[in-house]
Amino acid sequence: xxxxxxxxxxxxxxxxxxxxxxxxxxxxxxxxxxxxxxxxxxxxxxxxxxxxxxxxxxxxxxxxxxxxxxxxxxxxxxxxxxxxxxxxxxxxxxxxxxxxxxxxxxxxxxxxxxxxxxxxxxxxxxxxxxxxxxxxxxxxxxxxxxxxxxxxxxxxxxxxxxxxxxxxxxxxxxxxxxxxxxxxxxxxxxxxxxxxxxxxxxxxxxxxxxxxxxxxxxxxxxxxxxxxxxxxxxxxxxxxxxxxxxxxxxxxxxxxxxxxxxxxxxxxxxxxxxxxxxxxxxxxxxxxxxxxxxxxxxxxxxxxxxxxxxxxxxxxxxxxxxxxxxxxxxxxxxxxxxxxxxxxxxxxxxxxxxxxxxxxxxxxxxxxxxxxxxxxxxxxxxxxxxxxxxxxxxxxxxxxxxxxxxxxxxxxxxxxxxxxxxxxxxxxxxxxxxxxxxxxxxxxxxxxxxxxxxxxxxxxxxxxxxxxxxxxxxxxxxxxxxxxxxxxxxxxxxx
Length: 495
Known about the structure:
Layout: E1 2-12, H1 16-27, E2 32-35, H2 61-64, H3 73-76, E3 79-81, H4 86-96, H5 103-122, E4 127-129, E5 135-137, E6 140-143, E7 150-152, H6 155-169, E8 173-175, E9 179-185, E10 191-198, E11 201-212, H7 221-227, E12 236-237, H8 246-253, E13 258-259, E14 265-271, E15 292-295, H9 313-321, E16 328-333, E17 350-352, H10 355-362, H11 366-379, E18 414-426, E19 429-430, E20 437-439, E21 445-451, H12 468-488
Parallel strand pairs: 1-2, 1-11, 2-8, 3-6, 11-21, 12-18
Antiparallel strand pairs: 4-7, 5-6, 9-10, 10-11, 13-19, 14-18, 15-16, 16-18, 17-18, 20-21
């Protein structure tokens, strides 16, 4: 056992959530240590597997044009960004979670989202235009309500690495390949440090405040089966292999209150041939809104046009997992090939000149699939197709109607992309207040313990609006870092 050390604040994890807390704490004068169990090139949890953008309240073109300096002015003039208000953001979260998201925390995230964006900008990480979230209408690129126009330069990987770099430059000590083994608690029940293990050697590190931000249990097959249900131990992991849930268990062991949907997760459709772990963004298949989805029986099972993909993709993986063999096919005709997102270029589709031939190549029942397509085509109502809005172009009379963007599948060649489920993060976690303080089972703060990121529960129930996880991590991370630093300095009480 190595000699014990003392810091003001210890942060467990090194992702965007953890770094936001660490940077804020060190800016407030605290002596901060950030520990990460992964090696440096794999550090950062699921943040490394994001696009690097996040959902914020903004005024559209008049506000965001100034951040698009990575492209020439001539290109900027062809971009239209719809305004996104506080009411719209709050409503979107409540709508997709059926009103079950934590109200006070959601309000805080929404109200402070733009401030978090400005804070990230102040760190000089740089921005890229997120063209994959734009809809092409003629020569123009339209960012619809709630779309995410900007990514941090370098995407998720760039975001994570740059945040760690900023933390180090500001004075945070960072130790990679150092895992937390146990939270240390004093005789009064306050968290006073963490036992770490690095290269087989243990060490007790004491601190006035500990911030846990080490992700959920998406990469832990045992916990997935226990909490998400039968068969979830076999699901592909779209994100980090290091999010294995042990830090959540440590928090529960010292009295933290569990909250949120422990049986829920962010789970998307990904390329069937994707790696079992860590496939990342290139395996995403989110353009299903322009076609139809069928299972291995050749039948539709989901309203592909329920909403923009940013509001449905995170639940679609779970729905797909419940289909036969956990496999589905995204089917398109040639009218929409040029509308598919760039990630589709990473997968060779199954292509055919007739629906029957496509069914044979997919090894699904020919007559059933043919009937599915014929009935769908017959149900498509007349109207103008407009991918830049919820166009209301729908089907009528089907068991599962398509609500928007319904066009006939009738123009050869036809393409199908085999997909399966890929889990990104889990929804259940510990309960916190607006300062990021972890609450016990009586809703009282556990002195010295803070939490941020995916291991916090209560934000998402059943579904998730795309890009809202990172902004949650930034807002709550800064709150936790500020409060933890003040507690370490003796400036605040636990509640």
